[in-house]
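Page 47, continued from p. 46.
Same chain as before, 269 aa.
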Amino acid sequence: MYTCIGVMLAFDIETTGLDGHKHDVTVVCTEDFHTGERIAYEFDRIKKQDPAHLQQLKRDLVTAFNNATSLCAFNGIRFDIPFLRNSLKLDNNTVNAWLLKTTDILEACRLGKFGPRHTFGLNLLCEFNGIKMKTSSGKEAINMAHANRWDELKNYCVEDVRILCDLYRKRHLRNPRGYAMLDLSKIAHADVYAPRLQASNDTIMTEAGSKDTTSKETTKKPQTDEDDIDSLIQESIELTNEQRIAQLEAENKQLKEKLQVYLDFCTCL
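Result:
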């Protein structure tokens, strides 16, 4: 049986405005990168139709984020996570843990991970990489919430996390600004592109005395080229102690940069 080494949740939020102190989160959608499982936390619908379960919905969201090995978003470092902190009144320890395990394509480009510091919109990134683009806009999502068009709102948010997973499954992306190619394995958690483990329980002895292993998949395989997987394994094997230390130092520097952005630049705090 194939099992995931870890869980990466792609997530997106919709809100009634840009200020987490004044406005509310209306829906949060997640998609498990490996299994494709999608969940919608419909805060606006529950608030208006079943307010007694609002706190349980919040607890469910926090549990899912806490349990994920990693998270990914687009502009999640500077907007989504700080907004959730204020709107849902989350504690700093919870939020900091989320920030440290969040991969954010836009933030990586802002910090110069793929050439000079630069930015671009999600639709432009999709256009350059043959990914189906967003179906609406954040402004229209606010109108959907005010008009109680909850199904439309949820579907729009679901599309955003679908886009994120499509981008990560593609892994190598053309940069809309013409800088270095976006190899998402350079910023993603180590288990995102790692091969899944295969158990040996279903081994059958053939008449010739050789072993024939069959497997049953319970989740979708990550859409990663076999050559890419082999390369990742080989790179891991060939790392020297000095290279591992350098790698850890680079990761530590990146985590510090994320926290610095959170402290200095998040305008909605």
